[in-house]
Amino acid sequence: MASLLLRSNRSHRCGMAMIICSCNVLSDHDVRAALVGLPAKPQSPTDVHVCLGCQVKCGRCVNSIRQILTDAVDSCVGRYANGMPAPTPAIPASAEIFV
């Protein structure tokens, strides 16, 4: 598993895509693209699949997608810890939420 993640990180840096989900033919670039530009970010591998218009089938991709999600969060935390301003929340903290 570690070698898969290492290759995934290397492929991202080199610009080459690596297939993460063979059932839906999703690359690591597809997964990362699902994390950008949406008001509500995917929080789980299932959310990523839904954003990309498909669904989890065999489940072999779940750990790799989870790692990409974790790496993206860690990257954001690192940037904000180094002095970048935090993003403005989409919903004001004072807004009432009805369930």
Layout: helices, strands, pairs:
Blueprint: H1 2-14, E1 19-21, E2 26-27, H2 28-33, H3 45-51, H4 62-81
Antiparallel strand pairs: 1-2
In short:
This protein has 99 residues and is mainly alpha-helical. It has helices spanning 2-14, 28-33, 45-51, 62-81; strands spanning 19-21, 26-27. Mean pLDDT is 76; it is low at 1-11 and 91-95.
Descriptive report:
This protein is mainly α. It has one domain (2-80). Helix content is 46%, strand content 5%. The chain has helices at 2-14, 28-33, 45-51, 62-81; strands at residues 19-21, 26-27. The protein has a two-stranded antiparallel ribbon with strand order 1-2. Strand 1 and strand 2 form a beta hairpin. The longest helix is centred in the last third of the chain and has 20 residues, at 62-81. The radius of gyration is 15 Å and the shape is globular. The model is unreliable at 1-11 and 91-95 (pLDDT under 50).
Intertermini distance: 40 Å
Per DSSP E runs of 2 or more residues, the count of β-strands stands at 2
Low-confidence stretches: 1-11, 91-95
Class computed from helices, strands and strand pairing: mainly alpha
* Strand arrangement across the biggest beta sheet: 1-2
The major pleated sheet works out as: 2 strands, antiparallel
As a percent range, the share of helical residues equals 40-55%
Number of helices: 4
Percent of sequence in beta strands: 5-15%
Number of domain units: 1
What is the helix/strand order? HEEHHH
Q: Average pLDDT value?
A: 76
Using the alpha-carbon principal axes, give the shape. globular
- Work out the radius of gyration: 15 Å
